[in-house]
Amino acid sequence: xxxxxxxxxxDLGRWRWPEVAFWVAAxxxxxxxxxxxxxxxxxxxxxxxxxxxxxxxxFAGIISLGHAAFFGCGAYVAGILARxxxxxxxxxxxxxGLVAMGLGFVTSFLVLRGSDLTRLMVTLSVSLVLFxxxxxxxxxxxxxxxxxxxxxxxVLGWFAFDIFGSVAYAYSLVVxxxxxxxxxxxxxxxxxxxxxxVKGNALRTAAIGIPVNGRLVAIYTMAAGxxxxxxxxxxxxxxxxxxxxxxxxxxADVMLTLVLGGVGYLYGGLIGALVFKWAQxxxxxxxxxxxxxxxxxxxxxxxVIGRERVFGWPAAVLRRIAR
Length: 323
Hints:
Layout: H1 2-12, H2 17-32, H3 37-59, H4 68-83, H5 89-111, H6 116-136, H7 138-141, H8 166-187, H9 190-200, H10 202-207, H11 212-238, H12 248-261, H13 267-286, H14 291-305, H15 307-322
Helix pairs in contact: 2-8, 3-8, 3-11, 3-12, 3-13, 4-5, 4-6, 4-11, 5-11, 8-11, 9-11, 12-13, 13-14, 14-15
């Protein structure tokens, strides 16, 4: 029985060719699309942010409308450290993730209390409180004017950020890939399977001896750290932080991104980020005044028609070709 379970886990964690093709294409975009590095850097950051939300929503079933709290926390930590002269991006990014994890751990005990509606309101409240704190502490955060005067040093002391975004995109892509590998390993482990079991039926999971609250606290803390790293990447690659990083629309955007790509599998946030940013860029060039209307219309169509029906035809074509 134990050998069979280990074999099943090993098969679950085995890399398939679509995954390899996805990451080959991602790294190939750095070489083949040099004029799009600034946009692709935003895609990588949004993808990491959506991945962090997928850990709590797609795998643990915790609904959050305030995930921007951790994103903004990481952005401000990285930005403040760079402003104070601690310009090493790697150490700043590590500090951003750790502080966001601490915030996630503290607030996780509030989030676990009550039903889904209670969790929704608690996460939103945490984000709103942090937004007001950042606005009031203008001496530290810059307030409504934003955090300026940041000096970010070269990555690893060698690769300085350029105006074309080449180093920024490579830096963000390396961080995204590394954290994705960690998330993939965790979610294909017994711990990850137990988190999925909690989402499926918390009462039955507790009945077989799995600490439900402990699992939820752990995955929520991990997701907060991922969001903090994403915020730190944004602060370091743009060298500017404003209240926008912790605003409500930031949480709404990442929620829509995840729904667009698909909830409950690790590539959903990455694919959704690519589609969302591409649509935003294309529609803003096509109709600068009404691009938000068209994006909203797409999401309404996804809800009414269903994401599987809208995006299911490529999978059907591939299955027919495979036959």
